[in-house]
Write a structure and sequence with these properties.
With 170 residues, this protein is of the alpha/beta class. It has a single domain, classed as Rossmann fold. The chain contains five helices and six strands, in the order βαβαβαβαββα.
Length: 170
Amino acid sequence: MKQLFVIRHAKSSWDNPRLPDFDRPLNNRGLRDAPAMARIVEKNHKPPEILIMSTANRALQTAQFFSSAWSLREDECSEDPQLYHASVSTILSVVRRIDESVKSAAIVGHNPGLTDFVSELAGGEAPYDLPTCAICLLTSEAEYWSAFDCSAVHLTAYFYPKKDMDHYQF
């Protein structure tokens, strides 16, 4: 069995309209939500063994909070430029390249790709849209990441800041 945490980056800043999309940082809400959501996962689920993130600034910042809260070492975190505004097929190819010894992984990326990815794999269980800093835990009956697909994937958990932050004590 394989578990995949799908994490949309936290809320980003639009304060500087001249800043390229790729370089936008997190805003104050994003800086608040990302560590809180990481702690929610840590308190309710066994954190993943590895974290793969988009190379966009807001995804890197989000991932930093998660890797810190989950005590992941530097060698357990990797950047993948393909996750920046990735399609479902691109995200799936990243997931299918995860080392087979890993049982649980996390990816940090962007919409609309992540919402489409979760919808494709989890079908009717999937949320309509992943808000910023939303986390979906997908569980697959597949023995290998290379076989990870929609035939045996279930949405095991779904967290997002506006729904979950008031319900958890830190």
